[in-house]
């Protein structure tokens, strides 16, 4: 199982991520949203030749992290009109959410997904297939070098402060030179 | 929650709420008006799901009412937000009560934070005034907006804003044009809780579903008014009964039938008020009753009945 130190080492190799897998969210989100996310994400992937990325998995109670090579498989959509139809920030933010949803699907297959507004911002959560505990999801994306790390650290702090009782979370940060996924569970330390 | 997700109605609402919140997020810093409409739509669906879950899972129900409260608060629908926080406190699940109380405290200070430089802020200002005074006409709105918020708006602008707020289910309007006074009421149609809004005047619209007067037994010792009772299928949720003065019924026998599109002005009453006025029934699914005093043909916009003022007619 991904998500423990022992297994991560064993499986720390290649993974394929298919953009078409976003359609698995059609049970929980309207198609127009998924279609828009897919286009924006594919536009950024093409722009940055983002086809091969490193997924860095860092556990809550460990200083070490483990890297996976992930191959991103796109639809090959025509994305040439994306920059003229949307503002830059919107493209990046939507692409960040798309990648977050895709990596959640990859790391933690789920049986329930929803978005609520419990406080400031928007709260994404899911219930994984292997238990009934709700887990949180945070996503961010930026094209500013090093800004992704800052945002990621801020989101990790947010989780510690805001959701101390959360059974787990995935935080996804996408930026041009790296794509970083922060994923943790309370039981990380015991495995 | 997991078992309840097998319920298609709940699952559909979960999908609609998530989708509209993501749309709202996509409009952050882009189109404030659109963002707020998505937030309000998500808020309304969150109220619906909160109600559906209420009997089975108070934790999940509280979570959705709290989310509705935040959605409305952020869109400037201050009073719809307030009823959501009040509902969370009424349900009484520990973890959520403090957050709801914090929400109410923020709303108490909200008139200090409304950004009157934006249209959405001015709409929130009008919404605030309408609910604070529990209904007013355009001239009163001009005066109260100036006195309470220091905001000067023309009657024309107020009418335009009121129409927009009505389209977003935040107020209900009656009157105008053709020289009639234009009234703006709080919209009580889909509140998280109606507690605190009984006897408040408002307008509702819908279609007459059926006449149910024969199902009631008249207790003559309490009989204080002569009414006909209808089920109106329309904006009010949960659905409620509407009482119509006997004079109104007699004058409109040809209209007050199943399928008639009606708008009514009146006051929201507790269902028990029917019994205290002599109309008793053994069992009922209805919690509230709407006592109409003005009936309007929804297609033509023309009044078909206006209750005479006591002592004059």
Structure description:
The complex is a heterodimer of chains A (191) and B (313). With 191 residues, chain A is α/β, with parallel strands linked by helices. Helix content of chain A is 34%, strand content 30%. Chain A has five helices and eight strands; from the N terminus they run αβαββααβββαββ. In chain A, strand 2 (52-58) and strand 3 (65-73) form a beta hairpin. The longest helix of chain A is centred in the middle third of the chain and has 20 residues, at 88-107. Residues 1-11 and 187-191 of chain A have low confidence and may be disordered. In chain B, 44% of the residues lie in helices and 20% in strands. A five-stranded mixed barrel of chain B has the order 4-6-7-10-8. In chain B, strands 1-3-2 form a three-stranded antiparallel sheet. Chain B is globular, with a radius of gyration of 20 Å. At the A-B interface, helix 4 and strand 4 of A face helix 1, helix 2 and helix 3 of B.
| Share of helical residues of chain B | 40-55%
Largest sheet of chain B: 5 strands, mixed, barrel
Q: Kindly state the mean pLDDT of chain A as a whole number?
A: 76
CATH superfamily placement of the largest domain in chain B: Nucleic acid-binding proteins
Number of strands of chain A: 8
The number of distinct helices of chain A, counting runs of at least 4 residues, comes to 5
Shape of chain B: globular
Please give the largest β-sheet of chain A: 8 strands, mixed
Most extensive chain-chain interface: A-B, 25 and 28 residues
Work out the helicity level of chain A.
25-40%
- The global form of chain A is globular
| Strand order in space, largest sheet of chain A | 1-3-2-8-7-6-5-4
Q: What's the CATH first level of the largest domain in chain B?
A: Mainly Beta
Radius of gyration of chain B: 20 Å
Beta-strand proportion of chain B: 15-25%
Task: Report the β-strand fraction of chain A as a percent range.
Answer: 25-35%
Q: How many helices of chain B?
A: 10
- In terms of per-residue confidence, which ranges of chain B show pLDDT below 50 for 5 or more consecutive residues? none
What's the multimeric state? heterodimer
Instruction: Give the termini distance of chain B in whole angstroms.
Output: 57 Å
| Class computed from helices, strands and strand pairing of chain B | alpha+beta
